[in-house]
Amino acid sequence: MAEETNRNQQPQQDVSEQHKIRLEKLQAMQAEGADPFTITKYDVTHHSSEVKENFEELEGATVTVAGRMMSKRVMGKASFCNIKDLKGNIQSYVARDSVGEEPYKAFKKFDIGDIIGIKGEVFKTKTGEISVHASEITLLSKSLQVLPEKFHGLTNTDMRYRQRYVDLIMNDDVKQTFIRRSKIISAIRSYLDSQGFMEVETPMLVPNAGGAAARPFETHFNALDLDIKLRISLELYLKRLIVGGMERVYEIGRVFRNEGVDTRHNPEFTLMELYQAYTDYHGMMDLTENLYRYVAQQVLGTTVINYNGVEMDLGKPFERITMVDAVKKYSGVDFNEIKTLEEARAAAKEHNIEFEPRHKKGDILSLFFEEYAEKHLVQPTFVTDHPIEISPLTKKKPDNPEYVERFEFFMNGWEMANAYSELNDPVDQRERFKAQEEQLAAGDEEANTTDEDFLYALELGMPPTGGIGFGIDRMVMLLTDSPAIRDVLLFPTMKPLD
Hints:
This protein has 16 helices and 21 strands. It is α+β, with helices and mostly antiparallel strands.
């Protein structure tokens, strides 16, 4: 029997030697006028899954399929191969009498990983496997590299992220994650479009990176001899559009933050922000609840999510709790009873909360929340009414100006979204920017700087507005049961190999 080769059973040759052999095969084909790289088009009529799902209609019909050859079993005058396409894989029966002697001879020299096209009749083998009986077989692209032997079993996940294209070839579940990611974003767009929102695009290169507490990446624009930054948020330009009369806008795009990498952070990630005139943060809560339910139902067919063995129910009303009440519930410290910065610092020391000299009472409340409360917020929860010190772009609560009309949405102990009743008072906004500048001078590299053009826009007048930012990658992680953000980014940021 001729040599049998598949992805789990490769010839025990040195990879570089196999590369050399494949290159020689290509050169021989080119010398014979059969260069596969001269083929520019191949008419595919069906994907593998379509053939299998519609077998009763297609049995005996002629189809053309194409994909990467993942296995080949040569048996004299007839052979079997299996090709993988976007939607699955399908077997083909390749017989010399059907395809011709010379094409069959050429087929026997094909390698695992080659991209081929097959035309033939749909039939079912004696073992019941739906297959294509090839009448024509075409080499569409020559693979010069050898596919990994057991890519899925590799413990070196680093290489899977670096060579995502190989990961996608070898692991169907990885491909399905990114197909689902696309469906999630499509469902988000569908919902927002149905609510009268308009999708827009705003600059990525900006003179002033504001709208979030994060350190920006900096670069230089040679043509204008101008130092500029990559955006850390979408907020300030989208608010300008609200000023311009575009009442409901959203953007889904990459933002860039010069920070570390861990299971939930990547320096470039996908953010969605939306702004709606004439509503507030309560309106944003309702929108968030409805959006999450809609997306889960559209993509998963259910509102119940299972992440790492933990069940979360988007079908039930989302819990709503103030930050002060959450800290009291999980730490026992009631910030309603803490009146001064000195009392807040004393409480922090008592509970081993580390703080910096620049931190005010509201900052310490936030530190308590991060330490004691976040990890408990597994079911969908809105945490509302943040301290003003950590919310420079948010309206104050009229009855308690130490706090603002803001919420963060949590699931699985993660912050999933951040929303405000947007500050539209230009005088107050200038004072907030001034406070941020002071924090920057005190060593806070994530503090905002004053944006004069944005202040001018506010002085023209911005209506009462609700706004929210969603972390798309974390949403995808939850809806695909993916353990790390790198698992939902096609090409995550990686340190270069030495």
